[in-house]
Amino acid sequence: MQVFAEDGTRIHARVNERQHVNAVVLIHGFPFSESIWEAQADALARDACVVCPDLRGAGKSSESEGPYLMETLAADVALLLDALGIERASIAGHSMGGYVALAFARMFTERVARLALVPSRLRADTPKEAEARRELADRIEREESIEPVVESMLPRLFAPSTPAERPIVIERAYEIVRRNAPAGAAAALRGMALRSSAEDIAEDLDVPMVMIAGARDAALAQEEAREIVGRFPRGRLIVCEQSGHLPMMEEPELVTQALHEWLSE
Ligand code: MLT
Question: Is 29 in the pocket of ligand 1 (CB under 6 A)?
Fold first, then answer.
């Protein structure tokens, strides 16, 4: 399906099994698209209406002028839910998708039935991290290419065992990223650099919360994952032992199972 935001941006989403009453939204991270959730979208559709948006500037959604604030991306998700007649949903986000899920939770608290971070973090960027994002965005725009993102980010995203044990995952991840337009990636990077911390809202989100983290994730240490979960009144941590930053692709069955359990909480 697709909807159009007020500024004319086309927001695309894959929607599986519209007839179910329970809805789950799976929001992809950067620099990906909804395709990362292929395995979960199909499996969860047996019990829920599964909505996988392409955030603006990614996948089949169109680009708009950046930066893409997390609040703008969250409003796009709300627009999709409105169009589907879904008032309340379980919201899962991968990394940048987690920042969007948290912005959604701040803006539309009553619409969040459950929260999953697969994985993601609460804090904002340090000034150094924000600067590195802006430099990468500048480079993408200068070179008019997504390759600077591919080079600087993708090799760090997988568990050391994934290339040998699941080469197809690596191939698929690169393919998904390379389909994205450079301008959308730059705008998302600038938006992430501007995001505020979500540490203040965790204790008020009294809904079933799960963090599904990779034991070999170079982007999120286990201690930080544990600390984040501890801030939520009903937080749980599930560790995928053979995953880096993309557990939904590196250990798809485990993530599906964890999401199933979370949806029945
Ligand atoms: C992501 O996977 O969405 C990014 O790693 C998020 C980030 O860079 O903070």
Answer: yes
